[in-house]
Design brief:
This protein has strands spanning 3-9, 17-23, 26-33, 36-41, 56-57, 62-64, 71-73, 92-96, 99-104. The chain is built from no helices and 9 strands. The protein is globular. The strands form 3 sheets. It has a 3-stranded antiparallel sheet, with no helix packed on it. The protein has a 3-stranded antiparallel sheet with strand order 2-3-4, with no helix packed on it. With 105 residues, the chain is an all-beta fold. The protein has a single domain, classed as Rieske Iron-sulfur Protein, CATH 2.102.10.
């Protein structure tokens, strides 16, 4: 088991947005899409650029790197478009009684 972080009520995170968080010395891109929440590593595996300043592809559940356009799955961290070929980390995140919890192993 890792470190559990309580991020606060889900209502403070607007749906369709991404927020950069620093937790345990790691940059995390936190995304809310409706009632679903996701957390992946905030550095593009191709260009070492912050993913949290990229575009969210809601229907595809992906986050696009703003520099070269690689898109990463919010559920697996795998790149789904080039030029990235390596995944980014995915973190366990959930909503419990209206509060967002994120675990870093």
């Amino acid at each position: 088991m890792g470190t559990l972080h309580h991020l606060g009520p889900i209502a403070q995170f607007e749906s369709g947005t991404v927020r950069r968080l620093e937790l345990d010395g790691r940059a995390v891109a936190f995304v809310r899409l409706g009632d679903d929440v996701y957390a992946i590593g905030d550095r593009c595996s191709h260009g070492d650029v912050s993913l949290s300043s990229g575009e969210i592809w809601d229907d595809e559940c992906e986050l696009e790197c703003p520099k070269h356009g690689s898109r990463f799955s919010l559920t697996t961290g795998q790149p789904v478009t080039l030029p990235a070929t390596q995944p980014v980390p995915v973190y366990d995140v959930r909503v419990v009684n209206g509060e967002v919890e994120l675990e870093i192993s």
